[in-house]
Write a structure and sequence with these properties.
Blueprint (H helix, E strand, L loop, with lengths): L8 E8 L1 H16 L6 E7 L3 E4 L10 H7 L2 E4 L7 E3 L2 E9 L5 H16 L7 E2 L6 H4 L17 E3 L2 E2 L1 E8 L2 E9 L15 H14 L3 H5 L5 H16 L8 H9 L3
Parallel strand pairs: 1-2, 3-4
Antiparallel strand pairs: 2-6, 3-5, 6-11, 7-8, 8-9, 10-11
Helix pairs in contact: 3-7
């Protein structure tokens, strides 16, 4: 079934802890895969600010004493990729049947929808066309942040990464989520990595050079609510769908009682 024929819901679930957000994504994906829930596009934020690690990333790469001291949460994502500091951003997740599509095909169709929405703020938003050698890259100390490089079809502005995404298959269901940078707090991740001061400074400079934010590209203070609206509209336009929001609030309340 093409995405245009799927019955999607949209949910802005607001602000929650890292564990709540990741548990929600996994549990909802399991429900979709079991045929118990409709495909879903969700947007959300994090309180407290949170570092999420990729599924196979070592927690030892993060100075947990310092994160605890600063009140920064730490969670492991169900998806791959590298560390992200979820701070001044909006996170999206999309969960739907893969219908036999490959990983890159799904990345492309999701990025086309995200790009359509983000062009509300910056018409020059584009998708990355090259693919780095991630096995080699992940052996380098500077690769700890997710935003240290762009994968093919990730979203950029002026060659700098604007959205970092990661994907996983749960049965025949796609779970993809990603961080849409609004302001510069993501750069603070380098404070919490276990590296020498020299390597940490180099990483910080790399992130400055390789990432950008909606506030930076527009010269304005962008409201996350406006980003949420733009993302929703982008999917509706690119995929030719109309979101059905009914019955989701009851599910969120039920989920909240069990976490």
């Amino acid at each position: 079934m093409p995405v245009t024929d799927m019955d999607f819901s949209f949910l802005d679930s607001g602000v929650h802890t890292g564990a709540w957000n990741m548990d929600f994504d996994v549990q909802y994906a399991n429900r979709v895969d079991a045929g118990q829930a409709k495909p879903l596009l969700r947007v959300y934020q994090w309180d407290p600010w949170c570092i999420s690690l990729g599924r196979h990333q070592k927690e030892s790469e993060i100075d947990t004493a310092r994160t605890n001291q600063d009140g920064i949460d730490l969670v492991r994502r169900p998806t791959g990729g590298r560390a992200i500091l979820h701070a001044e951003e909006l996170t999206y997740s999309i969960i739907y049947p893969s219908e036999g599509k490959g990983i890159m095909e799904v990345y492309k169709e999701i990025s086309e929808a995200l790009s359509a929405g983000l062009r509300t703020f910056a018409p020059e938003v584009a998708m990355a066309r090259s693919q780095p050698n991630f096995q080699k890259l992940y052996r380098e100390p500077g690769s700890i942040p997710c935003f240290s490089s762009s994968a093919r079809y990730e979203i950029e502005f002026g060659g700098k990464k604007l959205v970092g995404s990661a994907q996983r298959r749960i049965g025949g269901t796609v779970l993809q989520h990603g961080s849409i940078l609004i302001d510069k707090a993501h750069l603070g991740l380098t404070k919490y990595v276990v590296l020498s001061d020299e390597a940490r400074a180099a990483m910080h400079n790399d992130l400055i050079q390789q990432t950008t934010t909606l506030n930076e590209v527009t010269g304005k203070q962008i409201d996350p609510k406006d980003v949420a609206t733009a993302v929703r509209t982008g999917f509706e336009q690119a995929w030719g769908i109309t979101f059905n929001d009914s019955a989701l609030s009851a599910y969120v309340e039920l989920f909240a009682e069990h976490v």
